[in-house]
Amino acid sequence: MSVADVPRADPLGGACGVLPTRVPLARGADAARALARDGAVVLTGAEVTADALVVAAATVLGARLRELYPLRERASRDGGPVHLHADGLDFVVDVGGVPTRRRHPDEDHVLVQSVRPAPSGGASLVLDAYRLVDRLAEEDPELHAFLTTVDVDLYGAWAGLRGLPALPRVARHVEFTRAGRRVVRRTDGAVPLRRDPREGYVREMLARFEARVHGLEASLPRLSLARGEILLLDNYRCWHGRDPHEGERSVRILTLRGEDAR
Fold it and tell me: Is the separation of the CB atoms in 259 and 206 below 8 Å?
């Protein structure tokens, strides 16, 4: 990669960055308030087990829980950066002849537990996408209009993935749920709709959006999760990513839908 290919740091990242508060898991009500205020919270004092993520979700979200999706474990050695994104995938498998959903496009919360922190690097970054979209309305009205008014195929770039439905998932990057919650999406899978007469424009705006997001990352605050700590995110509001790392790193991830999800 040449110097010209490296995104310039965008100072807007500092204005939209989130450094989540650490709250003991035992203080579920305090964690819920921090999550509502900031869109993210770090839960401390959890066991380093797969059950801990389910317990954490129930402790903080309580009766608002509706659907949990299968736990995922992610391990990497000398990993590259993971750019800012919101979780969500339209992924269905056949289990004993019954279609079974393993991921949902409208997961509204995500929990990430540090199982093995990297010896070097691997810090997490979190961005308040609500704040970003509001700022874009003033700073880049054309991009804001694209995100709020233009339909795309959210996962069309991954059409060959087994389990991903052939039916396009059509949506805008910014939408609202029936309960009035704003959803701000960010996925590397978005492509123009098939035979969209604006295909060239859509590709141009998707590239502009990606460049803007990548440029924000350098200005965001960094968060290093200790072993066992859990980052809980409002997935409709906040995007997350991580820095490159050296050595072994592993996390467990749980996504879910609550009562206000689409």
Answer: no
